Amino acid sequence: xxxxxxxxxxxxxxxxxxxxxxxxxxxxxxxxxxxxxxxxxxxxxxxxxxxxxxxxxxxxxxxxxxxxxxxxxxxxxxxxxxxxxxxxxxxxxxxxxxxxxxxxxxxxxxxxxxxxxxxxxxxxxxxxxxxxxxxxxxxxxxxxxxxxxxxxxxxxxxxxxxxxxxxxxxxxxxxxxxxxxxxxxxxxxxxxxxxxx
Length: 197
Description:
The protein has 197 residues and is mainly alpha-helical. The protein is 71% helix and 0% strand. The chain has helices spanning 21-29, 33-54, 61-75, 85-116, 125-143, 147-158, 163-170, 174-195. Helix 2 packs across helix 3 (61-75), helix 3 packs across helix 4 (85-116) and helix 7 (163-170) packs across helix 8. It is elongated. The termini are far apart.
């Protein structure tokens, strides 16, 4: 350290196994594969034990260990040396496990939500015809919109662009976007009533 900044370690001689933990991380930041291998050899048992305690009985421990060292390889240039290398690796491992748990919880919630959705019956041929007719009516109604209203409708409804961004894209005020959207809805209602007569 000099003037509060971390100086890069340079290997002048010797092997990766002879470098200090921090020097290994610095060498990894310089894309030294031998240093990454040495770091793995030095800490993989500790990381494995740590992860195994976090996810007891989980068959993914080996995957998490591998991903921890892959992430260490990517993160090495950002390592500031505020903690011991082992602590840094444990932090990476803990973050990966947390992300995995969050993903699994989201997946479980989605599965539960999906299971609670009632099965929609396949529409009968006459219902399918009605749905197709409705689509045709809506398409015809959209075609009847003025270009200004159609632009707003396509951006905000079909492309789901926020009103503020639509205003920028069209070069108008945001208030004008909302007014045009209101006019669009009314124009579509009127057009659909006319078409369905």
